[in-house]
Amino acid sequence: MHVAVGSGNPVKRDAVERALAAGGDTVARDATVEAQPVPSGVSEQPRGHAETIRGAETRARNVLAEGDYDLGVGLEGGVAAFDGTDGLFLIMWAAVDDGDTVGRGAGPSMRLPAEIERRVADGAELGPVMDDVLDAEGVARRGGAAGAFTGDRVDRTAALETAVAGALGPFVTKLY
Predict the structure, then answer these.
(1) Which of 32, 101, 158, 175 has the fewest CB atoms nearer than 10 Å to its CB?
(2) Cα–Cα distance measured from residue 171 to residue 173, given in angstroms and rounded to the nearest whole number
(3) Rounded to 10 degrees, what is the CA torsion of 51, 27, 32, 21?
(4) Is 15 strand, coil or helix?
């Protein structure tokens, strides 16, 4: 099975590999994963679940069309509010597309600390804000905001892996 991830970020590729390897089925055993950057069709900082899901689906569809792939995977991180609670949350969505079926899954959601939330609410993108707050470069290519917000108990790869595992459901189980 030839799988393409619609991103050049190695964290996203690793998350897909880990989600595939977690299963003992033929999809996992036969999979090779290739990273290929494609446009998401959404803003640099997706806001809300609908835009974040649309970005993941667009990436999956776009990367599937780029080559001879069995599955295209799109991963998109965003920020969103939830009914019944205050603040903005880091969210992540995955879409897996084989040209006929699209599976969707979400990763964990984590509340943004007040100062980070303020900056993002004012229009800043989370990645550069995290680089600034942590006085580091390329946080999104390592542990990500998820790692920072959880004291590295859940890094970005693990969080995205959960989203991909959920999106793989229609392809790895007969329940759908």
Answers:
(1) 175
(2) 6
(3) 80
(4) helix
Q: What residues contact 49, with CB distance under 8 A and at least 6 apart? A: 78, 80, 91, 93
Please name the helix (run of DSSP H) or strand (run of DSSP E) that holds residue 115, with its range, or none: helix 114-121
CATH class of 2-108+155-172: alpha beta
Report the 10 Å Cβ neighbour count for 141: 14
Domain boundaries along the sequence of the chain: 2-108+155-172
| Distance, CA of 63 to CA of 36 (rounded, Å) | 7
Q: What is the pLDDT along the chain (176 residues), one digit of tens a residue?
A: 999 999 999 999 999 999 998 876 666 667 899 999 999 999 999 999 999 999 999 999 999 999 999 999 999 999 999 999 999 999 999 999 999 999 999 999 999 999 999 999 999 999 999 999 999 888 877 778 999 999 999 999 999 999 999 999 999 999 99
